[in-house]
Specification:
CATH class of the largest domain in chain A: Mainly Alpha
Number of strands of chain A: 7
Largest sheet of chain B: 8 strands, mixed
Number of domains of chain A: 2
Oligomer: heterodimer
Structural class of chain B: alpha/beta
Order of helices and strands of chain A: EEHEEEEEHHHHHHH
Largest sheet of chain A: 5 strands, mixed
Shape of chain A: elongated
Distance between the termini of chain B: 59 Å
Number of strands of chain B: 20
Strand content of chain B: 15-25%
Helix content of chain A: 25-40%
Number of helices of chain A: 8
């Protein structure tokens, strides 16, 4: 057990217009998740603390937040990785609604612009079975299928901070997942969106997104591949 | 103020079952999906290992073999007409998912790759079969993403972060739901011709669970409070391989790829319990065997856990990989990337060099809202509720009987989500709106206001952890009458204390303090039904194992439990006893036999 202090950035416009910091002293095991600490604060000390959480093991993407200055999932960050004072803030560049909860509607709206769904006019095989795809073709877009839409990447991107109209890395990851799927026929439509003013060219390869991704997706590389497809007119 | 909406069909829950139903129903009628989280946060996304279908892409397989495995896996409490539908329609459901774009893993021929999974066998139990279709170990994630993507494609209307507090069923007819908009705290009244519930499980009633924080079962409790039955609630699955103390699931895909369970002496103890299927025996049995090893003093370091070993050298030593072939670390990393990462992150172990501490974790409710094979909710053993449907884990078809096979939760939600969604859509095309009763939202409003204003001395978190502890200890893997009576009386004591809680948060926007309090009320009701249902079933079957009645008793208990509340009837937790009826099990092809592996 170690003593840790949680410094949490708070905001509740129902109570007061400006944000403030709350501090909470806890005894914590090194194997505890930051989410466990937040829960203990909420359950034992201050029930008004608000944050999103669900699965608790890094798959649902609910508890993305800024932990000691880096965007991470609270359920995938252990006390042992952090110092004795842990600073927790909401994601940057998104409107804070309450405490650690940010408005995700613009994030999902940007996601929808890239047509994040399978597009194909080709009828499925006449025998009703699966379309064929080789393991190599499947591997081509494997990395970007891992995305859980947690927004850690988009909210770490300097270009997104500069302009929230930028569709952001998460949307491009989703576009990539379909553009490079051998079965999909919507690459043209998606590349058109990606090529617009608020598309991929806003990316200046800061690599923040790749560092932030809790799923380990090589996001900057995926964005680069979409850029290359736009520049060469070829998807390969 | 209350916001009013009118949709022909309202679906509660946006996991696999809700989204599959929404896609079907949206072809026929106008649909709204209400979810307390963003749909992509739903727990379907955490399913790892795969989704079964006898495609025969790897080796010979047949739906009859699969149906048999499902029936036997469920210890013959499965309704066999439903199991036949599951086994047959799994094939077209998988192809439908592939046609929607789901990125399954592929064979060299370009077909969907399949792997072995617990309890799935060839030739009626002769040995493991490769039946589970998969995307590495994130199959549920890919299903959830694909279904959500297709809902976006087809402009399905979503109400994200809306918390359903009441399901309006009056005079045997569903009329809509009442929900809180979490961002504002405002109430929304949804008037509908038909409602489909797909709210998932309620494993948060147990201390060690793989279930998300959100799995608390409010819509299930809502129906029970309104006087509708819950079926087979005594059957709750404990998955054998949860991460020690945390309960996070490590898929049985790890064992499908050759991983083995070892006791504190380093022995492959399943040789003594399940010589044919060993590490791929069904989950209820493996969880019991682990407890028995621990009780016999053969846990690791004298503690209450055993090891899951996926080191290539171990797998190769036992020849436990499919076909006895040799595996490498790189191959395992490719097939099981997420669970290997979880072992590293949460246990701090290096699974390619050391074994991983595991213990059984509360995982899946076989019981729930009784439905027929088209998702229609039953009001009793022989009656349905007009306009009310359920699918997925919250429902009990019953296709899982007393113990669900691995992968069958995903099959259930696509097969029966699909059927339920079609039936829902067709119903809406011919039905009219049943009128809402006056001030239909008043009860939910009253209950929420009361909670928000509560200033008693009891804390929600304290009551919840006491509930979880007693359920884990007394209504877990091993049960007996005295313990279950103790649990039942403890739960009733907690319900008493629940009336004395105090909240910190009196605000409107994102008042998660209030929502957690409401969720606890649902868990208390569902835990009470679980304990009471377990106590009245005086036999052992599937996941329900009693020290005092260790044998299955087909003469008296080859039947489903229907549990009803005896008092109450509003949106608040019930009072009084649980009342029971039974319903016969449908047996078509497979007569009950002793269950060995």
């Amino acid at each position: 057990m170690a003593k840790v202090t949680l410094k949490i950035k708070r905001f509740d416009p129902q109570r007061e217009p400006a944000s403030w910091w709350s501090e909470h002293a806890l005894e914590a095991e090194p194997t505890e998740r930051v989410l466990d600490l937040l829960n203990r604060v909420k359950w034992e000390q201050d029930g008004t603390l608000s944050f999103r959480r669900s699965c608790g093991h890094g798959i649902c993407g609910s508890d993305s937040m800024r932990i000691d200055g880096a965007n991470r999932l609270a359920c995938k960050t252990l006390v042992s990785e952090l110092g004795s004072t842990i600073t927790i803030e909401p994601l940057l560049g998104m409107r804070v609604q309450r405490d650690l909860i940010v408005d995700l509607e613009p994030f999902f709206a940007a996601y929808r612009t890239v047509k994040p769904y399978f597009i194909s006019d080709a009828p499925p095989p006449p025998d009703g079975r699966e379309r064929l795809q080789t393991p190599a073709q499947r591997l081509r877009f494997d990395d970007t299928t891992k995305c859980i839409l947690c927004a850690c990447c988009t909210a770490s991107c300097p270009s997104f901070w500069a302009s929230s109209e930028y569709i952001g890395p998460a949307s491009i990851v989703q576009a990539h997942r379909f553009i490079f799927d051998s079965r999909d026929e919507g690459a043209g439509e998606r590349l058109q969106v990606a090529g617009e003013t608020m598309g991929v060219w806003r990316c200046h390869t800061a690599f923040n997104c790749t560092l932030a991704c809790p799923r380990g997706i090589n996001i900057t590389q995926a964005i680069g591949e979409v850029k290359r497809a736009l520049a060469t007119g070829r998807v390969e | 103020m209350t916001h009013h909406h009118q949709f022909d069909a309202v679906i509660v829950g946006a996991g696999g079952a809700g989204l599959m139903a929404a896609l079907q129903a949206a072809r026929l009628t106008n649909v709204a999906v209400i979810s307390k989280m963003y749909p992509t946060r739903s727990h379907t996304g955490t399913a790892q290992g795969g989704i079964a279908a006898p495609l025969g892409n790897m080796e010979e397989d047949h739906w009859e073999w699969y149906m048999y495995d499902t029936v036997k896996g469920g210890d013959y409490l499965v309704d066999q007409d439903a199991a036949e539908i599951l086994a047959r329609e799994s094939v077209e459901a998988i192809y439908e998912l592939e046609h929607m774009g789901l990125p399954f893993d592929r064979t060299q021929e370009g077909r969907i790759e399949q792997r072995r999974f617990g309890g799935h066998t060839r030739e009626y139990g002769k040995g493991p079969v490769m039946r589970s279709c998969k995307s590495a170990d994130r199959t549920g994630h890919m299903i959830l993403q694909t279904l959500y993507q297709n809902c976006i494609k087809h402009n399905v209307r979503f109400f994200d972060e809306f918390f359903v507090a009441d399901v309006l069923v009056h005079e045997g007819v569903a009329r809509g739901v009442v929900a809180v908009e979490i961002a504002t705290g405002e109430l929304h009244l949804f008037h509908a011709k038909a409602v489909l519930l797909a709210s998932g499980g309620f494993g948060r009633m147990f201390a060690v669970t793989s279930n998300a924080h959100s799995l608390t079962g409010e819509p299930v409790a809502a129906l029970y409070r309104r006087g509708l039955p819950l079926e087979d609630m005594e059957f709750f699955q404990f998955h054998p391989t949860g991460i020690y103390k945390m309960g996070i699931l490590l898929s049985e895909a790890a064992r499908g790829e050759g991983g083995v369970l070892l006791n504190g002496r380093g022995e492959r103890f399943l040789e003594n319990y399940a010589p044919t299927l060993m590490d791929l025996a069904p989950r209820d049995m493996l969880s019991r065997f682990i407890y028995q090893e621990v009780a016999a003093g053969r846990g690791v370091d004298g503690k209450d856990y055993v090891h899951l070993d996926i080191r290539p050298e171990t797998i190769n030593r036992y020849g436990s990989a499919p076909g006895g072939r040799t595996v490498t670390a790189a191959e395992l990393e490719e097939k099981l990337p997420d669970i290997i990462e979880m072992m590293r992150v949460y246990m701090g172990v290096e699974p390619m060099r050391e074994p991983v501490p595991i213990q059984p974790t509360a995982h899946y409710a076989m019981g729930g809202i009784p439905t027929d094979n088209d998702g229609r909710v039953l009001a009793g053993p022989t009656r349905t509720v007009s306009g009310l449907y359920a699918a997925g884990e919250c429902a009990c078809v019953s296709v899982h009987g007393a113990n669900r096979l691995g992968t069958n939760s995903l099959v259930d939600l696509v097969v029966f989500g699909r059927r339920g969604g079609k039936a829902l859509g067709e119903f809406c095309r011919r039905a009219d709106y049943a009128p809402l009763p006056p001030r239909a939202e008043a009860e939910a409003q009253g209950a929420l206001d009361e909670l928000r204003a509560s200033r008693g001395g009891e804390r929600v978190a304290t009551l919840r952890s006491e509930l979880q502890r007693v359920m884990m200890d007394k209504v877990g893997v091993f049960r007996k009458a005295a313990g279950m009576r103790e649990a039942l009386s403890a739960v009733r004591g907690l319900k008493e204390r629940y009336t004395q809680i105090g909240l910190d948060d009196r605000g409107a926007a994102f008042n998660t303090d209030l929502l957690e309090a409401f969720e606890l009320g649902a868990l208390l009701d569902l835990a009470e039904v679980t304990a009471a249902s377990a106590l009245q079933r005086t036999e052992s079957r599937g996941a329900h194992y009693r020290d005092d009645f260790p044998e299955r008793d087909d003469t008296h208990w080859l039947k489903h439990t229907f549990a009803y509340r005896s008092e109450g009837g509003d949106v608040r937790p019930t009072r009084g006893e649980v009342r029971f009826e039974t319903k016969p099990v449908v047996v078509t092809r497979f007569e009950p036999k002793p269950r060995t592996y």
